[in-house]
Amino acid sequence: MVPSELDGAIVSNDFPSFEVRDSSRCEIGFLGWLARSAKFVELCKAASEGSTNRVRISEERFLGQEIPLPPLAEQQVLVARLDALAKKTREVEEHLDAAERDADHLLALRFRDLIADAPRYSIAEVAPTVRRPVEIDVSKRYREVGARSFGKGLFVKPDFDGAEATWQKPVWVKSGDLVLSNIKAWEGAIAVAGDEHDGCIASHRYITCIPDPNQATAGFLAYYLLSDEGLEQVGFASPGTADRNRTLSLGNLCKIKVPVPELTAQEMFGRLQGEVTALKAKHAAIREANAALLPATLERVFHTEATA
User: Looking at residue 142, what DSSP letter applies?
Assistant: First the structure.
C-alpha cells in the first residue's frame, strides 16, 4: 500500500497499481495487511504468467482473484489490532537498538581511556604472523572459514571433500588466532577465531597472527584494528587503485603500530566485550522472535480460504 509520504510519486510500468473504490465494503488498511500475508503472495502467484525467467502478474487474472472480506466493522477492529502489534514490535526493536548503542558507546569510552597513554608496538612484536600450511588429502573432508567485512566475524562454510579443493596453499586456523583477509582487511574483514573455528582451514588469502600471551589479547587487538584509527592504518597498509586490488601484505601488516596497555587492563576489557557480546546474543534471539510475530499473526488471521 502506498503510504501518505509517497503520494504523488512515480513508478515504472512494471508496477501495476489499483484503487480501492468501495470504501463501504473494504477498509484500505485491511488490504494493506492482507498484502503482507503469505496468502496474498500465493494469490499473486496464481495471477501470474510467463516463463521462469520472465514471470509477470496479469492484471486481468489478478482482478479475478477472490479474497476473504469480513464485514467492515470487523476489518477496522482487525486493522487497529495489527497496527498496535506492529507499533509494539517497532518499539521492541528501538529499545534493543538503544541498549546496544549504549553498550557499544561504553566499550568505546573504556577503550579510549585504556589506550590514551599506552605504549605502541608493531604487530610483528606483539602478534607475529604464523602460517600453518595444509597438505590437502583428497580422501578427507575439510571445513573452511571466511571473514565477513565490517567486523561481522568469521563464518564456517559447508564441509567439502579434499578432492574438491580449487585453491592452493590453504592454512590451518586455530582458536585464539587473529584472522585477517588480505584483500578485505581494509573493509573490516578482521576477526578472532573461536573454539568453533579451531581445526578449520582458510584460503591463502587469509593471514593468521598469534598474540604473545604476555603482551596482548586477540580480542583487544581486533577491537583496535576495527576502530576508525585501526582501519585507517590497515587501509594505508593495503595499497591499490581498486577495491579488488587492495591487498594487505605481510610486510605492511607487521609494521602497523598498535596500543598495548597492561595485560590485566586488556583482559578486563575482554570481559566487558564478552558481556556486550552476550547481551547482543540475547537480543538476537529476541529480535528473531519479534520479527516472526507479525508474519505468524498474519498467517493465522488470513489463513481462511477466500470467500468474497
Answer: E
Chain center to CA of 199 = 24
Looking at residue 197, its pLDDT comes to: 96
Strands 200-202 vs 171-173: parallel, antiparallel or unpaired: antiparallel
What is the spatial distance between Cα 43 and Cα 37, in angstroms, rounded to a whole number? 10
Q: Which CATH architecture has domain 120-260?
A: Alpha-Beta Complex (3.90)
* Widest Cα–Cα separation across the chain: 77
- Residue 146 contacts residue 202 (beta carbons within 8 Å): yes
pTM, entire model: 0.82
φ and ψ at 121, to 5 degrees?
-135, 160
Structural domain spans, the chain = 1-114+267-308, 120-260
| Segments of the chain with pLDDT less than 70 | 242-244, 304-308
Under 8 Å CB-to-CB from 284, ≥6 apart: which residues?
none
pLDDT recorded at residue 62: 93
Q: What pLDDT does 193 receive?
A: 97
